[in-house]
Amino acid sequence: MQTMESQQMVKRLPKRILKNKLINGLFLVATIFSLSILVVLLARIIMQGYSWLSLDFIQNFASRRPEEAGVKAAIIGTLWMMAVVAPVSCILGVGTAIYLEEYARKNKLTRFIQMNISNLAGVPSVVFGLLGLTIFVRALALGNSVLAAGLTMSLLILPVIIVAAQEAVRSVPKELKEASYGMGATKWQTILRVVLPVAIPGILTGSILALSRAIGETAPLVVIGIPTFVAFLPGSILDSFSALPMQIYNWTSRPQEEFHALAAAGIIVLLVLLLLMNSIAVWIRNHFQKR
Amino acid sequence: MKTAEQKTDIQQIITNKQQKRFIYKSEKFVPIFLFLMATVSILTTVGIVLTLVFETFTFFSEVSFVEFLTEKKWYPFSDTEASYGIQSLIIGSLKITLIAAVTAIPIGLAVAIYLSEYASNQIRKVVKPLLEVLAGIPTIVYGFFALTFVTPLLRSMFPSMEMFNAVSPGIVVGIMIIPMIVSLSEDALSSVPQAVRDGALGLGATKWEMTWRVVFPAALSGILASIVLAVSRAIGETMIVTIAGGSTPSNDWSLTNSLQTMTSYIVQVSTGDAGFGTTIYYSIYAVGFTLFIFTLIMNIMAYMISKRFREEY
């Protein structure tokens, strides 16, 4: 290797510094660009939809006439679905996480379960729709009911909840557990009374984020045949229903401008719902982190 | 009095013993119960694979496997000359994925490098959650955005573009996967130890030289894995392409025409009237199976890349 003359080095220096600055600027532009997409997206949707937002819009059923259309059935339907998804996915997710973190031996089976979970997280949601269609809708003959959709969504978000719960359980300090064992508590008592209470903020945060994903998912619902045009409320979990994203999808796929505005209004409702859930998750995280 | 006291004592002993037995039993029972919960995730995978395999098998008893692979046209809705050539749908999916990758990889990497190497802590604290918001937006919203904003914008610039085209959903799918690339790549970059950076800077490298020649190569495995995962997500993306891509399977690589992807075909059949048990009904499983294999290969690839090239510090 040839050593450079110091003169040459000094000569090249401004160029290298300039290059560094240029690239810094370029990356800053890329960052601003991706954030501005968020701004444009939100601004566009609010501009398109806000004039259609009203109490009537929330309280009316779907209608062929845009002025009378509302999202009541969709909102209530979404809530019904979440009433299935939340308990099923949380119990299964937390149970699996506790098993993997506290009970499972480090053997092939455990590694297989772990790999399987991360693989499931990468399966497209539309494929989960096919699973739901075959198993829940057809084989178990649940039809396009709240239960069928709820179970499909639960399986879809299960990997996310498991991973979040695992991290929460893993981060419980070892000393706490050892103290509990030292007091003569059994393993399950320790988990129930020491590990879970400490891990619960982390579990909740992850679960709420996963649940908010389930609220926005559309593809599996389309595939299992959830209707978009519904003018009634479900009376039990075996009834048919519609969900907010399905209602938005229906309005989006119509050519008329008015329906696009309705879709935008529906999206605002959906985003407000998601924002609400996310702020709860953030609040939980901040509230418990302080201690 | 005495006998009453004794009685309660004995009762106490009995209940204590019962309690202990219960605790002992639950200690045995709980792990089994939790294990059963853990098997649900395996059963899900088994369920997915079995459903896809069985129904795909039925499909191939009606349509030949060779036709599926070699036929050029995907035209299932014709009564007389239905043809099932998966190529058109794969090309549709690849078109979207390529455009998404071209959009997302440069921007995503630039943001990731900016956040991990250039930005101050305060900026990072603001930008990261905002990008998480972008990641949390439902795809139906992105689809609506593609159809009502990006498509008209593109059509005002390129009048030859059709209402449904490949570019608009492709770009928006790219936007959707940017946060994924950013967050995973940023993790990979920031896990490179500070000492490595200090060494490079101490030798007189500028920040860019340090990033490009030292930090970036050290984090390369994580970065590549993030890209592969994001691309896999793009292939499987459904609502954006359904809403903004149209439903015309085509075998050419034109970007301005309507197209159909594997996912949007599944949605089209699901919303249509294809009755249970028809060939069209079974075809969605064959398409779903193909899609599943594509994403499975990519996910395994991402796993292998991050495992094989992981740098140990």
For this entry, give a set of tags.
heterodimer; A: 291 residues; mainly alpha; 11 helices; B: 313 residues; two-stranded antiparallel ribbon; 12 helices; 2 strands; transmembrane helix (chain B); MetI-like_sf (chain B); MetI-like (chain B); Phosphate transport system permease protein (chain B); phosphate transmembrane transporter activity (chain B)
Would you write up a description of this structure?
The complex is a heterodimer of chains A (291) and B (313). Chain A contains eleven helices and no strands. Chain A has 291 residues and is mainly α. The mean pLDDT of chain A is 89. Chain B is mainly alpha-helical and 313 residues long. Helices cover 78% and strands 1% of the residues of chain B. Chain B has a two-stranded antiparallel sheet with strand order 1-2. In chain B, α6 runs antiparallel to α9 and α11 packs antiparallel against α12. Chain B is flat, with a radius of gyration of 28 Å. The model of chain B has no long low-confidence stretch (mean pLDDT 90). At the A-B interface, α1, α3, α4, α5 and α6 of A face α1, α3, α4, α5 and α6 of B.
